[in-house]
Design goal:
Number of strands: 0
Largest sheet: none
Helix content: over 70%
Structural class: mainly alpha
Shape: elongated
Length: about 60
Amino acid sequence: RLEPAYLLVLLGALMFIASDVILSFQLFVRPADAPKPALPSIALWFLYYGGQALIAWGVLSNLA
């Protein structure tokens, strides 16, 4: 069983991976001439910054 701080790090890492998956679909799968939908971009930034924040929070709470 993981400590709660490690769960934050795990969730943050999963969010970061999800943001990379969305970014890769936007860059490599979506046709270049297709319109850019707003929802994947919003989700990308939410997952990226949220994931980084959870990773930092989990690591810092473990150091305290």
